Amino acid sequence: MNQEALKRGKEAFAIEKKAVQDALDYMDFEAFEKAVDLLAKAPRIGTSGCGHSGIACMHMAHLMCCMERPARFISPAEAVHGALGFMQKGDVMVLASRGGKTKELLPILDICKKKGAAVISITEKMDSPLAQGADVVLPMHVELETDKYNSQGTSSFLAVNVIFDALQAALIEETGYVNEQFALIHPGGAVGERLNQGK
User: pLDDT 10s digit of each residue in the chain, 199 long?
Assistant: First the structure.
């Protein structure tokens, strides 16, 4: 490995450390409380995003399932071909887009509003269509991605995931979810073995 490559690798840790701190510093905790309240009461939760934001939304849907909140990731491509039938009045859709203008997500926002499903948007741009149309907006801020071109969705991916992880941590408290419930649905792997030890 050349020394410039090693230097870049080390800088990535510092850049992402700052991204996590910025996620905390820029968070609107009044909006965060509203988001937790909506998610806690939602019969179903949908998530959607494109690219790295979409992968983060898959993580969010899985986190919700792990605490027994019925959830699924809805591909933006499938959303406009019938998959939004999953969303009903009173449900919550979570949309993530750093720029808030991802054109594939705008029809999802429109359809959810028409169906009476609440929308939580995670974005950096508070004047964007996804922010303006959402019921709750959770702000994010990313100064730099980790690559030297500042174009790969690295720090921004981390920032969205940190917000989702924080929502899950709050929801565990808000809903009274207990580890015994998780033990039942997670018998596999080392985690399942630890959770179900002695049963």
Answer: 899 999 999 999 999 999 999 999 999 999 999 999 999 999 999 999 999 999 999 999 999 999 999 999 999 999 999 999 999 999 999 999 999 999 999 999 999 999 999 999 999 999 999 999 999 999 999 999 999 999 999 999 999 999 999 999 999 999 998 777 776 767 777 756 766 776 5
Is the whole model's pTM more than 0.85, yes or no?
yes
Q: Do 52 and 153 form a contact (C-beta atoms < 8 A)?
A: yes
